[in-house]
Structure prediction request, 527 residues.
Amino acid sequence: MAATRSITTTIATLHTSSSVSDRPSPSHVFSAASVANFPPRYHAQLGRLRAWSSAAAASVGGFSSSAPFFLGAFADSIMLLGMVRVRISSSSSLRFRGLGLQAMVAESRSVQQGRSSGSSSSSNSVMMTELLPKKLQEIVKMFEAVPDPRSKYEQLLHYAKQLKPLGKEYLTPENKVQGCVSQVWVRPSVKEDKRFYFEAESDSLLTKGLAALLVEGLSGSTAQEILAVTPDFIQALGLNQSLTPSRSNGFLNMLKLMQKKTLQLYMESEATSSVLSNSVIPVQASSSSSDSSKGSKTDLHKMLESSPPVFEKNSTMSSGGVVTTKKAVIEEKLEEALTPTELEVEDVSYQHAGHSGVERGATETHFNVKVVSESFEGRSLLKRHRLVYDVLKDELQTGGVHALSLITKTPREVSAAGKT
Amino acid sequence: MTPELKEAIDKYLSANKVVLFMKGTKMFPQCGFSNTCVQVLNTLSVPYETVNILEDESLRQGMKVYSQWPTFPQLYIDGEFFGGCDITLEAYNSGELKEVLEKAMCS
Prediction:
């Protein structure tokens, strides 16, 4: 690592570059002597910062050759400002031609952060972009190459405009992305080539752009490729500055829903076409269908198991290796215990972000649950709620579910209400 | 749930007619559901005590066992568990809550 690079070498390069570039010479900012007076710890950090900034600037490209050293000088000023406030007053002028120091430090800081996070994540992302479908890889690379948040945003809007509209009949609750501030629907379909294609719709331009990005990136891939996508690429896109936490959460949920639906669709299509007659394939309970059947491990599952984990830490892996979300588990349990005529489970964790005891961006901690069932007949509200809580005991005690907003009705009550 | 804790809870509930076990305090609720209950009780202008279960982890877990109810807030009227936020709100809307409170106040 560049920490071992001696400070004198770094300064020497500064001197040489300054004679070449027409920018104000950074060398007058700190004489080699004054820098050398700083404790060794600073030297190591200075060296590292310079290495980052030059590596980052070099990797982004499109900069003049003097830029790395320019940034390096900023590194010095930042280090000083950050750590040695007393010394600044005594060191030589930190003013560069025409610009106030504050503005420049602020800009370089954001540039630094953008650069260094870009460079450190690009090393990670190089590893895992290989796991992404080709098209998505390209999109990620393009976003990485465009550092300016404004341009990224505009690119998103561009995608939004390109998105083909989704037929109205597909705007169902099943296709709706949960935990998103705007309304977003996604619809997967599979063609004869066993590749999956997506369509999406949304009522907000920004989320349309995000959905379109995923549609572009994932369409035409195989089920395995889609399920292998980990959410890390979202970081690599670098949209954090343009997206609020709830938007980012929604984006993540879009991906999850697309993956979940891909899995469902894949299993269904395999079930109809395959010769695995002796096994029943479990289908994740969706909000309104009530025939979820328990199944045994099939060859499909073994195949999917071997690909990397799909969902992040908030979802639970059942013992069969098939990925489930808490929502699905809750739905299944309630289906089984109460045989409801109506069941709705909605993840509203985003409404409680920042709540005490809930970490930012946590999902699947708070749910709205609506159950209409005969089993509630003759029972007080309290008893009904206790019943539901009993069924979901595990999720509440150890599963990280903090709260359930319950609506518990009998079929009779619902039809009576409907008539008024 | 130690016997001491249970006894302490029993005692507290018999000494106070209306008790809300919540996240935060009456003045500073720290959860939307807890806040809803506080607002409801305030509207009914009934004197009530609140207990902040966030302050004490053993109390927090203890109350879940005591009430056989896994979440907060928990409303107790006249020493008896009445319900959580959903139930309290619905009872308020139906008028049932007012009735129960009046009965408790009179006894």
Residues 2-124 of chain A form one domain.
